[in-house]
Amino acid sequence: MTDQSQYKKGSVVEFDDNWKIRSHEARQNYYTSGRPTNQIMMSFKNQWKVYSSFIKNPQPGMKVLEPGSGRGSISCYFAAHGFDCYLLDTSAEILAVAKDIFKENNLPAHYVCEDALHMSFSDNYFDVIVHCGLLEHFEDYRQALIEQYRVLKPGGIIISNIVPGKWSVQKAFGFINLFLKFVHGLLTKLKLVNKAEKAPKKPLYRSDHGSEIYIEVLRSLGAAIEYQGGIFPVPSLSYSPAFPFTVMSPKIEKFLVWLWYLVLAIRKMIWPKRHPWMCSEKWGQHVLVVARKPINQKLL
User: Fold this and answer.
1) pLDDT surpassing 90 at residue 75
2) To the nearest whole number, what is the mean pLDDT of the chain?
3) Is the distance from CB of 156 to CB of 226 less than 8 angstroms?
4) 142: enclosing H helix or E strand
5) What is the DSSP string of 147-173?
6) Buried-most residue among 3, 69, 223, 295 (CB within 10 A)?
7) Neighbouring C-alpha atoms within 13 Å toward the C-beta of 67
8) What is the pTM of this model?
9) What are the sequence ranges of the domains in the chain?
10) Which residues lie in coiled coils (predicted)?
11) 8 vs 167, which has greater pLDDT?
12) Number of H helices, E strands in the chain
């Protein structure tokens, strides 16, 4: 697609509209320096712990880019640990939300409203490129990775968290979300909960590709693959789990956080050599690919 406003399957309009329609979800602050209080906060905290294990000799001021940042939840964790964070998104509205969230957390960042396929940064600029739920929305995922690799410094890493529409733990437990949706709808009709949103979430294109196609592109660019597998080994439960995810009541969320940490503790006993948030690609909600640019490689 040549039109930069159409660089994802269909259009970025659906993303922007979902952020606007579901303004409450868009403005959720999922960063915490303490114990998570909901499922999504728990996810980002564990993502950070996994991602940081791949960063060799982290130094204050290392530059991190999050293309397709949305509200920048994972970048909050990088910024809190001294990284110089750049949030890039096509939506000026969601970048304004991200700016408010970073201000709320007393964290610094740079905000760039640009197309992830045509970034204005110079070659070899960033130490880390990280994104969550980005590549599965691209038809032209190859160009997205080429552009990321271009702006990555030699020795730097790309951390790609992909959320494909494949079978996973999320689909295995999908019947629970269907039940929660039914119950919530019933309670809404009985006026026992707040009225449901006037506008439904718009469906988004999501490919079902596994890690192999992304690894093929990265290897063709000269990258060394450091991890290929699954991540996020527990389901996300909600009466409205589609993007952007709707958290449930604080009591339910706290119970689920307790339950999932219990599951992680059991997983740690079974697989002590890896972080319990990591899992097989088949089981994980998300697919994780970590690739490093060789230290002696300067040009594509």
Assistant:
1) yes
2) 89
3) no
4) helix 141-151
5) HHHHHEEEEEEEEEEE--SS-SHHHHT
6) 69
7) 29
8) 0.90
9) 4-292
10) none
11) 167
12) 10, 8
